[in-house]
Amino acid sequence: MRVMGVDPGLTRCGLSVIDGSRGRQIVALNVEVVRTAVDVPLPGRLLAISDVVEQWLDTYRPDVMAIERVFSQQNVSTVMGTAQVGGVVALAAAKRGVAVHFHTPSEVKAAVTGNGGAGKAQVTAMVTRILGLQAKPTPADAADALALAICHCWRAPMIARMAAAEAQAGGQRQRVGAKVKAAR
Predict the structure, then answer these.
(1) Do 136 and 120 meet the contact criterion of CB atoms below 8 Å apart?
(2) Residue 63 catalytic?
(3) Is 7 an annotated catalytic residue?
(4) What are phi and psi of 30, to 5 degrees?
(5) Quick one: CATH architecture of 2-183?
């Protein structure tokens, strides 16, 4: 499975692509941080990020995209910028039929380090170790993008089982509802 991880941010947007196979074997293909200048108007910044994301989608052709879910922060403008970037990135994936999954920061930290409250240094150290990298990915946005891709790769089997169980339960609800309706 090829996973593109995205740590959305208006000033720094982390991008990564990994290949995962059975078990926990993962190979990093690329990682980059897209930077936009604060003096550029918002539409221009979003377009710059979108252009790079679309180039990556066309180059790497991921099976799925893992994006960090926006969470409440004290700085509303940061949250808005992060959400806008996440939307632009999800749209680019949807245009190409690439499945999109959102993961919270605590899900990512728990998957990669075993601790949902881990700090950035711990996440970076574990990403470096998991991928067998010679050097730590920098800045933190690069490590976070890799952690998102790893998280999704490892959680994908469970996500698929949950979707299958929900579909089966939905079918059972319909059959039971039809029997109840017929019995009336």
Answers:
(1) no
(2) no
(3) yes
(4) -165, 155
(5) 2-Layer Sandwich (3.30)
Identified catalytic residue from 51, 68, 107, 166: 68
Does 7 belong to an annotated binding site?
Answer: yes
d(CA 94, CA 97): 5
What is the C-alpha to C-alpha distance for residues 26 and 130, in angstroms, rounded to an integer?
8
What is the residue-level pLDDT of the chain in tens, covering all 184 positions? Answer: 999 999 999 999 999 999 998 767 899 999 999 999 999 999 999 999 999 999 999 999 999 999 999 876 667 778 888 999 999 999 999 999 999 999 999 999 999 999 999 999 999 999 999 999 999 999 999 999 999 999 999 887 677 677 678 878 888 888 888 888 888 8
State yes or no: is 166 an active-site residue: no
Instruction: Look up residue 94 and give its amino acid.
Output: A
What residues does each domain of the chain span?
2-183
Nearest alpha carbon to residue 53 among 100, 91, 101, 2:
91
